[in-house]
Design brief:
The longest helix is centred in the first third of the chain and has 29 residues. With 502 residues, the protein is of the alpha/beta class. It has a nine-stranded mixed sheet with strand order 3-2-4-5-1-6-7-8-9, with helices on both faces. The protein is elongated and about 95 Å long. It is built from 18 helices and nine strands.
Length: 502
């Protein structure tokens, strides 16, 4: 007899959290939610985004909600009778507790007044169970000595990212506050010279077409190798961080931070990259270096040269830069070198789609512009003539997703690289670069012509004091790195085929 009493005591005693853990759950609230759904025809629409069958902890409650969901989506009445019939059709009536359990659910709820609040509690409990499952799997793998820790970190970031994306709920906003924000932006543009509403690019004609880099925009800057994508990005970084003192985050996946800064020094100090590497500079150049280094030292430019950066690492680092360094714009060189480790994909195109979509989501979340450099397919190399060499949106590598997600796509194009020295109007293209705005969600497309100083890896406004190379056919600084015909590449890049022609 004593043994029976002991057993009864043990079964009725709740588990002490010091010695064991119960899965997060709220079965009483699950029953309240199911009862409310059967007494109020509008209740389902109020919670359908928050609650799903797997949100419920008890299996029988999962089956009942699934029946209610089926009826609601078919726009059929939801009450104790229709739910009972639906469970019969699904073959789940007995597994769901039978008619008696359904009757208890129905009788215990008088109204659906608190159904939305109760649904939020269930959603939080379900998220907690998912996190426990995620942490348990991670802990098991961490104990396994055969598992590579770096790969485990990438997989952990990917899984956590997927979990957060699945549970992210975007609430609607009434038009009033949004309208006020739009008018504030218009007022700011009116009061700003040139009508800028975003961050100035430093290039007059480009600002005129874009009104500056806009918050929450994903901007793709694309081009073939040797067109000057990185030089253009560095020129933008210089214009924004050094000239305007606006904090910039620069993620360099291809070059080390020292290589990148060497190019930036060449850009700012107007000293050739070759001289920066070998140190053979004139007294005047040493003076320019000394003078400009003081301006560069305190510039709010933050460089991260992590190789093989994943989109999940980028999100973490970008949030930190915005929070701690007040960064207003992020640049990435370049998109195709990123990965989405931790998530499995059927193809590289699917992975790039995830990266592209995540970059756009990050731009919206942080409410800053993100500029990502991108490569182009080799297809245009086989096309002939001025128009044939001109980049098109279809030339974007893995173009579908990138083109769809981007708010703006700009191509960096230097016709002289292809021995094209005049445009269709007969204008001289020596020492010139075209910034082709091929897609622009918020404004016009078109071309912007800039000077390209190859020896300084620098782009300039056409009206800056600069004498372009002669039109005799000799091209000075035709390479992005500024090497003369047959010269050693000062930035350590191998010469391109046909460089001796130039």
């Amino acid at each position: 007899m004593a043994d029976n009493n002991t057993n009864k005591r043990h079964t009725s005693t709740p588990i002490n959290p010091q010695y064991g853990h119960l899965q997060p759950q709220a079965t009483d609230i699950e029953r309240l939610v199911l009862g409310a759904l059967m007494v109020d025809k509008d209740a389902f629409s109020m919670i359908s985004e928050m609650v799903h069958p797997e949100t419920f902890y008890e299996p029988r409650n999962q089956k009942i909600f699934q029946a209610i969901q089926t009826l609601s989506l078919a726009e059929k009445p939801v009450d104790i009778a229709t739910v009972t019939e639906q469970l019969k059709r699904d073959g789940n009536l007995e597994d769901a507790g039978g008619p008696i359990y359904l009757l208890e659910l129905n009788q215990n709820v008088a109204s659906s007044a608190h159904v939305e609040y109760h649904a939020k509690i269930l959603a939080q409990k379900f998220l907690a169970r998912q996190l426990i499952q995620y942490a348990s799997k991670l802990e098991t793998q961490a104990y396994d000595e055969t598992v590579d820790v770096d790969e485990l970190m990438q997989e952990a970031e990917g899984s956590l990212f997927e979990l957060s994306q699945r549970n992210m709920k975007q609430d609607y906003t009434q038009i009033g506050p949004v309208l006020k924000s739009a008018v504030d932006i218009l007022q700011k543009a009116y009061e700003t010279a040139g009508g800028l509403t975003g961050i100035s690019t430093g290039y007059t004609d480009l600002d005129d077409k874009t009104s500056g880099w806009q918050d929450s925009d994903l901007v793709i800057i694309a081009g073939r190798p040797a067109m000057g994508k990185t030089a253009f990005a560095l020129s933008l970084a210089k214009n924004i961080a050094i000239d305007q003192n606006i904090p910039v985050g620069f993620f360099s996946l291809e070059m080390s931070d020292v290589q990148l800064v060497n190019r930036l020094i060449a850009n700012v100090c107007e000293i050739s990259g070759k001289k920066i590497l070998n140190g053979q500079m004139s007294p005047d150049e040493w003076d320019r270096l000394d003078k400009n280094l003081r301006n560069m030292e305190d510039a709010p430019l933050f460089i991260d040269d992590t190789p093989g950066l994943s989109i999940f690492e980028l999100r973490t680092k970008a949030r930190r830069l915005v929070r701690e360094k007040k960064v207003k714009i992020i640049m990435i060189d370049y998109l195709q070198l990123m990965n989405a480790n931790g998530v499995r994909f059927g193809s590289r195109q699917e992975e790039v789609s995830t990266i592209s979509r995540s970059l756009k989501g990050l731009a919206k979340e942080l409410n800053i512009p993100i500029l990502a450099l991108s490569q182009l397919n080799r297809g245009l190399e086989g096309r002939e003539g001025l128009e044939g060499k001109r980049p098109q949106l279809s030339d974007l590598r893995e173009s579908g997703a990138i083109e769809q997600d981007a708010d703006m796509v700009c191509f960096v194009h230097r016709p002289e690289y292809y021995r094209i020295f005049n445009d269709e109007k007969g204008n001289d293209l020596h020492g010139k670069a075209q910034i082709i705005i091929a897609k622009h969600r918020k404004g016009a497309t078109g071309d912007v012509l800039l000077n390209f100083r190859g020896e300084f890896t620098r782009f300039e406004n056409p009206n800056d004091n600069y004498i372009p190379p002669s039109s005799s056919g000799e091209i000075l600084g035709s390479r992005m790195n500024g090497s003369a015909p047959g010269d050693f590449d000062p930035m350590g890049l191998p010469p391109l085929p046909g460089d001796n022609v130039f």
